[in-house]
Recover the amino acids of this structure.
């Protein structure tokens, strides 16, 4: 691909500065090779790539790119149109095949970029090619077809230049996504979900290339459990390692970028974390520590990796703590003591992370970890499991006051999880005695009847709120696989869908800055793995499992 390389830094800087408001122009060129068929004749490369290009065009257009699509036109027509426009980048979409007849062994994804002569490579095209390869392999991994066949220059690889790369005048790449003469690859390409995965991989690579987030920013939610959003809106996971110290790993940028290394927060701790973001935007983590006392640690300042030391909040906790944020922005930490009574402490001043009032006693006869969430009017609601496996709830009555404990009828077998859906209804989830997930919702002062969501689970549920206000529920079954159930409307649910894996304990969830839900779970070897929603508010489609940093406990 020809380019005056000295001009490209100026072009790229202009594109980055213009951002979403500028006309970043993408030309898509799906294969026109109508005679390229699978050995059984059920797959046609040109037809499949035409469909895939339309999916990619829709994704790019929705995000604000200007897009043109050759849509089955010839290679000559595509190159002429891209040059005349002119496009900022050129993307040619294909599937691969070996030379021969019948089904073959070669499989996976290759991307190519233009090399006019030995020793001369356009670094921008090479970077774009690399990004497309990484993202397509990532997406195809979900279906067991994530084989990386390298990003290569077209000249030494083929012995000649590819026409569309040679005849266009802007950075570009040709993507060969899977082999249509490999039976397993073709099975993925023949599905709508597989072609959408291909389109999503190229879409994310283009966004990364221009420094755009994949989706517009969504409102940042307050966390429940060990996952929180920092002041940037990026997710942070705080967990306990197998040595008893706390570890933190925090996203390093847009588009769910995670670093390789965890930050050691030290300490000698037990159980799982409760992590929150205080009024100063600093992350604050709470654990049970020596003597069953509650200990907490806070970021030295927002957006930095450094944390202050551990501070002892006292108490005599029998289970992990939970946290909430009052209407005035102060954090509260709750824990059930060894005598079964729920106690809490509250920040003394809004902008002081280290000054706390003493323990307040809310009474009761409880066990396990409490659940805390703000109601629609900002008052905190607390739900606790009783020693006879019932649930009780209480709501704030003012700055220091609380209403009386009230019974939530029913029998449960696990700690509660509380969240509020998009309509403002409060929802409490727990495991039933038979391992089913149970759900009950409240609007105003009235609780609806228990709803049995079914399933057969060992680990208690975790719940996230989608950008459209629907609830998404996750739990681990007896075989260690994670299953997911999405709210469709009101009391109607999609039914359980397995997301696979082999895990122990409980799932953890957070919502990314771009609105996609991210799921975390711990393997039997102590590794934390994660899986991300492919698009916001799309319940059924998830990318594959990836390992997050080093081994750590999360319970």
């Amino acid at each position: 691909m020809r380019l005056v390389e000295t001009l490209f830094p100026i072009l790229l800087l202009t594109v980055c500065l213009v951002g979403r408001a500028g006309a970043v122009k993408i030309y898509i060129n799906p294969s026109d090779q109508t005679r390229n068929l699978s050995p059984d004749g059920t797959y046609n490369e040109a037809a499949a790539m035409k469909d895939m290009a339309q999916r990619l065009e829709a994704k790019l257009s929705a995000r604000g790119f200007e897009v043109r699509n050759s849509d089955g036109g010839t290679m000559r027509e595509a190159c002429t149109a891209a040059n005349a426009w002119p496009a900022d980048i050129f993307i040619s979409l294909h599937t691969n095949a070996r030379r021969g007849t019948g089904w073959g062994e070669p499989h996976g994804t290759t991307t190519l970029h233009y090399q006019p002569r030995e020793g001369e490579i356009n670094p921008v095209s090479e970077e774009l090619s690399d990004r497309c390869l990484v993202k397509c392999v990532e997406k195809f991994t979900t279906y067991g077809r994530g084989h990386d066949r390298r990003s290569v220059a077209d000249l030494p690889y083929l012995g000649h230049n590819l026409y569309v790369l040679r005849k266009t005048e802007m950075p570009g790449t040709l993507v060969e996504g899977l082999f249509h003469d490999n039976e397993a690859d073709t099975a993925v390409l023949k599905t709508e979900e597989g072609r959408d995965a291909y389109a999503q991989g190229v879409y994310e690579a283009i966004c990364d290339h221009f420094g755009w987030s994949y989706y517009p920013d969504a409102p940042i939610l307050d966390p429940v459990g060990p996952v929180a959003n920092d002041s940037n809106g990026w997710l942070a996971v705080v967990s306990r390692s197998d040595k008893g110290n706390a570890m933190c790993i925090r996203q390093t940028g847009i588009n769910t970028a995670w670093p390789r290394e965890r930050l050691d927060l030290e300490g000698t701790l037990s159980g799982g974390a409760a992590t929150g973001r205080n009024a100063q935007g600093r992350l604050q983590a709470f654990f049970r520590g020596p003597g069953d006392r509650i200990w907490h640690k806070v970021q030295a300042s927002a957006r930095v990796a450094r944390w202050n030391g551990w501070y002892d909040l006292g108490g005599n906790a029998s289970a992990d703590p939970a946290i909430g944020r009052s209407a005035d922005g102060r954090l509260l930490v709750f824990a059930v003591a060894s005598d079964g009574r729920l106690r809490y402490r509250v920040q003394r001043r809004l902008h002081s992370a280290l000054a706390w009032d003493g323990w307040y006693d809310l009474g009761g006869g409880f066990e396990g970890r409490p659940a805390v969430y703000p109601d629609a009017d900002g008052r905190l609601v607390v739900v606790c499991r009783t020693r006879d496996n019932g649930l009780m709830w209480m709501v704030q009555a003012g700055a220091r006051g609380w209403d009386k404990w009230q019974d939530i009828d029913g029998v449960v077998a696990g700690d509660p999880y509380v969240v509020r859906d998009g309509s403002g209804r409060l929802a409490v989830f727990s495991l039933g005695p038979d391992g089913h997930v149970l759900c009950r919702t409240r609007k105003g002062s009235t609780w609806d009847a228990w709803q049995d969501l079914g399933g057969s689970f060992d680990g208690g549920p975790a719940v996230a709120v989608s950008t459209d206000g629907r609830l998404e529920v996750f739990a681990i079954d007896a075989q260690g696989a994670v299953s997911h159930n999405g709210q469709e409307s009101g009391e109607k649910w999609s039914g359980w869908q397995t997301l696979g894996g082999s895990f122990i304990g409980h799932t953890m969830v957070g919502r990314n800055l771009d609105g996609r839900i991210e799921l975390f779970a711990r393997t039997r070897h102590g590794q934390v793995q994660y899986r991300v929603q492919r698009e916001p508010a799309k319940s059924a489609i998830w990318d594959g499992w990836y390992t997050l940093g080093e081994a750590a406990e999360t319970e």
Remarks:
- Confidence is low (pLDDT under 50) at residues 1-21, 551-555.
- The first strand starts at residue 25 and ends at 30.
- The CA atoms of residues 125 and 171 lie 5 Å apart.
- The chain is about 15% helix and 35% strand.
